[in-house]
Amino acid sequence: MLGTASSRQQPHPxxxxxxxxxxxxxxxxxxxxxxxxxxxxxxxxxVWLRHYG
Amino acid sequence: xxxxxxRDEFEAxxxxxVLIGQLTPxxxxxxxxxxxxxxxxxxxxxxxxxxxxxAKVAVxxxxxxxxxxxxxxxxxxxxxxxQGRTLGHPAQLGGAMxxxxxxxxxxxxxxxxxxxxxxxxxxxxxxxxxx
Lengths: 53, 131
Fold this sequence. Notes:
The complex is a heterodimer. By secondary structure, chain A is of the alpha+beta class. Helix content of chain A is about 15%, strand content about 20%. Chain A is extended and about 40 Å long. Chain B is α+β, with helices and mostly antiparallel strands. The model of chain B has no long low-confidence stretch (mean pLDDT about 90). Chains A and B meet through helix 1, helix 2 and strand 3 of A and strand 1, helix 3, strand 2, helix 4 and helix 5 of B.
């Protein structure tokens, strides 16, 4: 139901952001953004939204 | 949105603040307009960054259990905003991370349930701890 998991999971954040850094996503203006570029010159806070509601 | 209101504090702390949502750039742009926020919003249709960040997919009770619903109602009462229609994978949970230039994850809070959200103050405290 609602795409829920069949068994309870635990969040499993990685030890470092190496894999995240290589991900490229479009922004709200359809410009591609490599995530690692967000923190190459200073810290970045990323917030993953559960939904757009 | 609390994070939008704290935007200046993130800038003062020397950190970028970026939101990542599901679906498409069009959905992200609509979300920004509707919420009246100026923060960048990335669109992750395949949820690859959610998986790389270790975000979990909830079981039913973590979405609509009594404690989760109660906390959501309290948040709505406090902010005056009700949750709108869910777009994207409805059981996908989110979270937050602070990442430093060497790909070091300084701090993370990935949600345990649908009402488990890090506050802007918690995220800012992690950033200020870097100074």
